[in-house]
Amino acid sequence: MSWTAVLWCLLAFWVTGGHQLTAENKTTIVELHNRFRSLVVPSAANMRRMHWNESLAAIAVAYSTKCVWDHNPELVDIGENLFITNGRLNVSNAVTDWYEEHLDYTYKNNHCQEDKMCGHYTQVVWADSYAVGCASHLCAKMTGLQFENANLFICNYYPPGNFKGKLPYTSGEPCYLCPAGMSCKDKLCATAEKLISTSQPTSSPRSTTQSPATENKSTPSSSKETMPWTTSLPRLNYTGGACAVTEGSLTLLSSVLLLLLTM
Ligand SMILES: *[C@@H]1O[C@H](CO)[C@@H](O)[C@H](O)[C@H]1NC(C)=O
Ligand SMILES: *[C@@H]1O[C@H](CO)[C@@H](O)[C@H](O)[C@H]1NC(C)=O
Ligand SMILES: *[C@@H]1O[C@H](CO)[C@@H](O)[C@H](O)[C@H]1NC(C)=O
Ligand SMILES: *[C@@H]1O[C@H](CO)[C@@H](O)[C@H](O)[C@H]1NC(C)=O
Ligand SMILES: *[C@@H]1O[C@H](CO)[C@@H](O)[C@H](O)[C@H]1NC(C)=O
User: Alpha-carbon distance 204 to 51, whole Å?
Assistant: First the structure.
């Protein structure tokens, strides 16, 4: 790695704190979710358009810094997808990875192929989940996984999906079953809100009557006890990347550079 590359990484690290997603990343995440939601087969009659939610993102930020390869035990009425790579994180690839699970999923009998995971996909296309907030964190070590210097990526969803025995959406003519007052945009039920909003909306989301108790979450048909259902399988695929340096070494470099700058 050249010194200019190191400096660029350092700059990026300073600006982002090593884990914060940029506004562009957030737009990418929301747009990709919405693209996949409009692509479902069979088509969905009640699929809502997804929006970014900073409160959900804040929960993901806080939990991502703990570097645990398991679901956030404190989530109540919030869904969660996890992804990890020991290469460079690309949010498009992570969300696409979750969507790719549709290849193992059959809508008509709500069935996931044996030994496969479909829960990330069904959360991504869960019709009612209209809010998403995500975070990434560079983890020097992980709890629950033999990964070092890995990029953990977490998305939280509201309302949560994956209720056992429930289909992710109702099939039918796109937007045929949109909640009252919503318009149809790219086969999705849309409100006038912007996809990325920094201000808090005046109305709070409606409360869900169902609670996503663990016993009501679908589990893989196989005994993949170590991997939570809605957790992406780890990628042992090291893609490298210009900024694939440990947070520790970056901090060290930062101090050295700061020292040089202040001398
Ligand atoms: C992320 O991956 C997509 C393809 O999956 C690519 O088009 C895009 O340029 C990548 N983004 C970055 C920042 O590397
Ligand atoms: C986030 O977006 C920036 C550009 O704003 C890009 O350089 C970076 O690779 C993206 N990060 C991820 C994790 O996709
Ligand atoms: C985000 O969702 C929470 C509930 O999870 C809600 O109270 C808050 O108003 C939402 N914020 C935005 C910006 O949508
Ligand atoms: C779990 O599902 C059963 C039926 O499948 C239902 O009777 C029960 O109320 C559900 N529990 C929760 C917490 O949703
Ligand atoms: C790493 O994974 C990406 C997709 O996630 C794939 O395109 C690439 O071929 C893989 N590389 C190796 C060396 O396995």
Answer: 14
Answer for the pair 187, 47: CB distance below 8 angstroms, yes or no: yes
Beta strands in the chain (DSSP E): 51-52, 79-85, 105-106, 111-112, 131-141, 148-158, 183-185, 188-190
Distances, alpha carbon 166 to alpha carbons 109, 123, 161, in Å? 10, 12, 9
Q: How far is the CA of 177 from the centre of ligand 2 (A)?
A: 36
* Cβ of 200 less than 6 Å from ligand 3: yes
59 CA → ligand 3 middle, Å: 11
Q: Which of 230, 221, 25, 54 is nearest to 126 (CA)?
A: 230
Ligand that lies nearest to the alpha carbon of residue 162, given by its number in the listed order = 4
- Residue 214 and residue 220: Cα distance in Å, rounded? 13
Ligand 5: does its nearest atom lie under 6 Å from the Cβ of 93? yes
Position 19 scores a pLDDT of: 60
Report how far apart the first and last C-alpha atoms of the chain are (Å, whole number). 25
Q: For residue range 137-153, list pLDDT tens digits in order.
A: 999 999 988 888 999 99
Bridge partners, 85 (sequence order) = 151, 235
Q: What values do phi and psi take at 207, rounded to 5?
A: -85, 150
pTM to 2 decimal places: 0.71
Nearest bound ligand to CA 77? 3
- Cα(77) to ligand 1 centroid in Å equals 32
The preferred substitution site among 29, 93, 237 for testing ligand 1, maximizing ligand atoms within 8 Å of CB, is 93
